[in-house]
């Protein structure tokens, strides 16, 4: 990290992205969603930056506030990318429209380290960092939370009104924060929004590495270190670590890509744990309000690239969606209700042409709700911006409703959504928000049973399915 003086700096443009590890499948999915990774020239190891989106009218109130008391609510956005890639400059989750449309809300986005730079799985660093944990990408998240808490009053924000908000791996990061702060009597975060991010499901799909094999010659760390491209050997000693630290990031990324290895969060029992479902059932999480949800057809974009026929794609999606997304969200939402946490749950169903690029079988795929809530969807096919489409009024209405709901939660995590008209979640009442169902402009509420059908069935995970999930895990958005 470079050191900076206290002089005024130009912060009107996004900083460089952290190094990106994008495999072939991830690249194809990114192309479909118009989320192509930044070029090497736009990446840097000096990448930890935050972006504050705030109305001028909100910021002008800052001098009159007492340490931010009574200031605007603050939403910290965490992007997805399977903990392998992603950056805060992606236009599809630029929060400018959100902030312009919603009063009394500030949105902070930030970069965090992913892949080998955020989760190096190094035996040397494991030993060195045992006391504090060795998931540096999650440490980056906590660093930003602390920075926002310490500084947001200068922008007109209230440091006691901070929520975490993320999608996919970003939602999982927000969810894991709650587990890591289970015993924190004064957490800095007052609420969580997890879009397609229940960690008890994504932990399976991300194929979390164990902490026991990091020194083996075939480990992800040693596969990269010992590759001809890198040439640092597999000795697992201080000299190897020093050698790796001297290798430029494009070389390390290229070696990881060629070896088809990925790096993700590992169990350190500080920031990342095992037995998520058990911890959830026991209530071992921060008791802060939660909004949690998933998309109705999460798996189509993840399985569709393996199939040329829509029937095969939808069949695999019918397995992937409940296993990784729907049922974990149900389980975690129910556990929070049992332990007295104000909880809201949704399923997003919108299937708009601008998002499905004319392939209606895609349905509400993984990530499909994100450009809707940010209102960044184009008047064209997302996968082909030259193909113009007319945005229906219903799509605009759903986007406006979602922005209003998300902001209502941020302003008052305890009861803002109740005031907005969204009942607290219960497995026995019409409290599951069905957003964009049949492309309707209005949100309806149902009992969860129709969506959760099959979640309580004890179905063994077949080997072939497990391998498919591991294969698509690194392609999660």
Automatic annotation (TrEMBL):
- Top EC group: hydrolase
The EC designation for this entry is: 3.1.1.-
User: Which Gene Ontology MF annotations are present?
Assistant: carboxylic ester hydrolase activity
The protein's matches in PROSITE patterns, at most eight in alphabetical order, are given as: CARBOXYLESTERASE_B_1
Ranges for the Carboxylesterase type B domain? 7-317
Q: Which SUPFAM superfamilies does the record associate with it?
A: alpha/beta-Hydrolases
- Cross-referenced Pfam families: COesterase (PF00135)
Keywords for this entry?
A: Hydrolase
| Similarity annotation | Belongs to the type-B carboxylesterase/lipase family.
Name this protein carries in UniProt: Carboxylic ester hydrolase
User: What organism is listed for this UniProt entry?
Assistant: Tilletia walkeri
């Amino acid at each position: 990290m470079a050191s900076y003086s206290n002089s005024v700096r130009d912060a009107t443009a996004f900083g460089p992205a952290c190094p990106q590890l994008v495999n072939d499948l991830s690249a194809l999915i990114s192309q479909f969603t118009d989320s192509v990774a930044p070029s090497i020239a736009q990446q840097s190891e000096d990448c930890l930056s935050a972006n504050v989106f705030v109305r001028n009218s909100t910021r002008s109130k800052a001098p009159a506030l007492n340490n931010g008391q009574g200031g605007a609510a603050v939403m910290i956005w965490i992007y997805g990318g399977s903990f392998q890639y992603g950056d805060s400059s992606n236009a599809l989750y630029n929060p400018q429209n959100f902030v312009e449309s919603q009063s009394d809300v500030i949105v902070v986005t930030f970069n965090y380290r992913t892949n080998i730079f955020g989760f190096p799985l190094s035996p040397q660093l494991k030993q060195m960092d045992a006391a504090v944990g060795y998931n540096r990408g999650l440490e980056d998240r906590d660093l930003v939370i602390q920075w926002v808490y310490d500084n947001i009053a200068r922008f007109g924000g209230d440091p006691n009104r901070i929520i975490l908000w993320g999608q996919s791996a970003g939602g999982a990061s927000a969810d894991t924060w709650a587990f890591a702060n289970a015993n924190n009597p004064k957490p800095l975060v007052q609420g969580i929004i997890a879009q397609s991010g229940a960690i008890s499901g994504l932990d399976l799909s991300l194929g979390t590495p164990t902490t026991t094999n990091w020194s083996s010659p075939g480990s992800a760390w040693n596969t990269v270190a010992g590759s001809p491209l890198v040439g640092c050997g597999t000795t697992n000693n201080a000299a190897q670590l020093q050698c790796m630290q001297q290798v430029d990031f494009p070389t390390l990324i290229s070696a990881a890509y060629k070896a088809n290895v990925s790096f993700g969060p590992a169990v350190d029992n500080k920031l990342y744990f095992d037995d998520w479902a058990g911890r959830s059932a026991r209530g071992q999480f921060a008791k802060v309000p939660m909004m949690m949800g998933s998309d109705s057809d999460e798996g189509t974009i993840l399985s569709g690239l393996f199939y040329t026929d829509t029937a095969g794609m939808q069949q695999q999606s019918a397995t992937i969606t409940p296993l990784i997304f729907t049922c974990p969200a149900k389980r975690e939402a129910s556990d929070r209700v049992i332990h007295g946490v104000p909880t809201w749950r949704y399923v997003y169903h919108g299937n708009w042409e601008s998002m499905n690029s004319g392939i209606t079988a895609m349905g509400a795929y993984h990530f499909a709700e994100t450009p809707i809530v940010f209102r960044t969807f184009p008047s064209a096919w997302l996968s082909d911006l030259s193909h113009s489409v007319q945005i229906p009024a219903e799509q605009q209405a759903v986007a406006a409703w979602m922005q209003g709901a998300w902001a209502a939660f941020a302003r008052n995590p305890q009861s803002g959504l109740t005031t907005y008209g969204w009942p607290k979640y219960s497995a026995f009442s019409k409290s599951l928000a069905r957003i964009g169902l049949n492309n309707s402009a209005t949100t309806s509420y149902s009992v969860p049973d129709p969506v959760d059908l099959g979640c309580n069935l004890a179905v063994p995970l077949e080997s072939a399915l497990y391998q498919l999930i591991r294969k698509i895990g690194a392609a999660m958005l």
